[in-house]
Amino acid sequence: MYKDTNKRSIVKGISWRIFATTTTVIIVYIFFGRLDLAIAAGVLETVAKVGLYWAHERAWVKIRWGRKKIEPFNLWFTGLPLSGKTTIADSVFKELKKLDIPLERLDSKDIRDLVPGVGFTREDRNRHMHRIGHLIKTLQNNSVSTVASFVSPYRESRKAIREMVKNNVVVYVKTDIETCKARDYKGVYEKAISGELKNFSGINDVYEEPQHAEVIINTDEKSVEEATVEIVKYIKKKYVR
Amino acid sequence: MYKDTNKRSIVKGISWRIFATTTTVIIVYIFFGRLDLAIAAGVLETVAKVGLYWAHERAWVKIRWGRKKIEPFNLWFTGLPLSGKTTIADSVFKELKKLDIPLERLDSKDIRDLVPGVGFTREDRNRHMHRIGHLIKTLQNNSVSTVASFVSPYRESRKAIREMVKNNVVVYVKTDIETCKARDYKGVYEKAISGELKNFSGINDVYEEPQHAEVIINTDEKSVEEATVEIVKYIKKKYVR
Question: Same domain for A165 and A222?
Answer without folding.
Answer: yes
